[in-house]
């Protein structure tokens, strides 16, 4: 005997109640979403800016180091030539 009952699990019931809440209170739902996401987006923007500055600083340091190494190599070649 096959049991054809549509027994819903706890997640399905919770999802249905959530969808019902969103359908009945869309403005309140969007307000809560913005309240929760705004600080997260601000932190993300701050960390992205900080990362960009760090990458920029590393690139400048690499350029300085390579220029310094090439100058040292040139001066050694001149010293050997003399």
Which key terms come to mind for this protein?
87% helix; 82 residues; rod-shaped; 2 helices
Shape: rod-shaped
Low-confidence stretches: none
Arithmetic mean pLDDT: 89
Number of helices, counting only DSSP H or I runs of 4 residues or more? 2
Give the helix proportion (percent range).
over 70%
Beta strand %? under 5%
Please identify the structural class as seen in this structure: mainly alpha
Largest sheet: none
The sequence of SSEs as H and E is HH
**Overall number of strands:** 0
Evaluate the radius of gyration. 31 Å
In terms of quaternary structure, the protein is single chain
Distance between the termini: 101 Å
Organism: Porites lobata
Region (Disordered): 58-82
Main location: membrane
InterPro entries: Smim15
Short description:
This protein is 87% helix and 0% strand. The chain has 82 residues and is mainly α.
Q: What would your notes on this structure say?
A:
With 82 residues, the chain is mainly alpha-helical. 87% of the residues lie in helices and 0% in strands. It is built from two helices and no strands. The protein has helices at residues 10-24, 26-81. The longest helix has 56 residues, at 26-81. The termini are far apart. The mean pLDDT is 89.
